[in-house]
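Reply to dn_fold:

You asked what the input looked like. This is it:
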Amino acid sequence: QVRLVESGGGLVQAGGSLRLSCAASGSIFSINAMGWYRQAPGKQRVLVAAITSGGSTNYAESVEGRTTISRDNAKNTVYLQMTSLKPEDTAVYYCNAGIQKYKLGYTNDYWGQGTQVTVSS
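and this is what came back:
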């Protein structure tokens, strides 16, 4: 079984910073792209940032310049460092990873349970 467990969410004032972590565990042969999505109340889940296994990154326009995604392949962990947070960053943040469980297996999408980030004005 594969699990993604997020941590690091919480309440922060506008202008503050947070670092989210997501660790993958279980039967894992390899992890391809990893990413963070967020879903605000009443809105669709959207991509915040993604990183390939080789370290290439892409960011949503709304967070570019104040957010950094990184990963530690040895720990099967992806991080999201957010700075200069704004009230509009308030959302549940979900970790996503494309994981191959076996050497000859397919890559499937896995999601974490989500972690709440609330930015007060």
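The mean pLDDT is 96.
Hope that clears it up.
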